Amino acid sequence: MSPSDTPENTTAPGVDGDAAGHAANNLIVFDQVVKRFGDLTVLDHLDFGVAPGERVTLIGPSGSGKTTILRLLMTLEKVTEGHIWVDGEPFSHMNKGSGMVPASENYLRARRKRIGMVFQQFNLFPNMSVRKNIMEAPVNVLGLGKDEASQRAEELLELVGLGDKIDAHPTQLSGGQQQRVAIARALAMRPEILLLDEVTSALDPELVAGVLDVLREVAETTDITMLCVTHEMGFARDVSHRVLMFDKGQIAEAGHPDQIFGDPKEERTKSFLKSVLESQ
Amino acid sequence: MNIWDFEWTFEVLPDLLGGLWTTVQITVVAYLMALVLGLVISMARRVPIFGSILHFVMEFIRTTPLVMQLVFVFLLAPSTVSGMTVGVLVLGVHYSAYTAEVYRSGIEGVAKGQWEAARALSLPAHRTWGAIVLPQAIRKVIPALGNYLIAMFKDTPLLFAIGVAELLTEAQRVGSADFRMVEAFTLVGFLFLVVSIPSAILIRRLEKRYVAV
Question: Which domains does chain A have, with CATH numbers?
Answer without folding.
Answer: 3-114+191-279 (3.40.50.300), 125-190 (no CATH)
